[in-house]
Amino acid sequence: MTRDGASSPGTRAVIRDASVDDIPEIRRILAAHENDAPVGEGGVDIIGPYLRHLVQRHRTLVTELDEGIVAFGAVVDTGTAAMLADLFVERGRLGQGLGRPLLTALFGTSPVRATFASSDPRALPLYVRAGMTPLWPCLYVEGDAEHVPPGPPGVTTRDATPGELSSLEEAWARPLGRPTMPTGRRSPQPMHSSSRMPRVPWRSGTGARSS
């Protein structure tokens, strides 16, 4: 799929489906927004598998100009809404009209759309124009397991692996009867936040939401 998008004068942006070969460029854009970084010794690469999952299992698009990929976004069909997982534009291209056509292409004709809003105030008007309304603050809590106070006897705390968290998400969703993905795909795995900053979930019954 390719579509024309907005860009700076004299250039034409093309929006197309992302492939796994695009992941290094997508990670470059994420790193510029401080949403990706080299994995330290003993660490776990979360971003790489997350992006591969989005590209292979959901709707992930990139915007290209002559110099290469300048924006990307991804939408997950949860069965009840189109959830915008990510929407990032290269820092040097912010304000050039690239985000809106990409957001439009990602949501398509989905009637119910949702996301966790960006901590970047420049993105909020884009979501409002897309028909979305902020609902409530969403705070992210993280830390080392060794700093958690001792629990009751017999209860221990340790760092979880991505595989364990994914399995728990599937197990918790199954009793809720969450619909499966179209074309036989499984229900989406846990979403990765695009930012560690507090966010506000947005939702629209007939409009979109973006991150």
Can you put this structure into words, describing what you see?
With 211 residues, the protein is of the alpha+beta class. It has a single domain, classed as 3-Layer(aba) Sandwich (Aminopeptidase). It is built from 5 helices and 8 strands. It has helices spanning 23-32, 47-57, 99-107, 124-129, 162-173; strands spanning 2-5, 13-17, 59-65, 68-77, 82-89, 113-116, 133-134, 201-204. The chain has an 8-stranded mixed sheet, with helices on both faces. Helix 3 links the parallel strand 5 and strand 6. The longest helix is centred in the last third of the chain and has 12 residues, at 162-173. Mean pLDDT is 77; it is low at 178-200 and 205-211.
Mean pLDDT: 77
Largest sheet: number of strands, sense, barrel closure: 8 strands, mixed
In percent, how much strand structure appears in the residues? Answer: 15-25%
Amino-to-carboxy terminus distance: 22 Å
Which structural class do you get from the secondary structure elements?
A: alpha+beta
Number of discrete helical segments: 5
CATH level-3 fold name: Aminopeptidase
Please identify which CATH superfamily we are dealing with.
Gcn5-related N-acetyltransferase (GNAT)
Count of the domains: 1
**What would CATH call the class?**
Alpha Beta
| Radius of gyration of CA atoms, rounded to a whole number | 18 Å
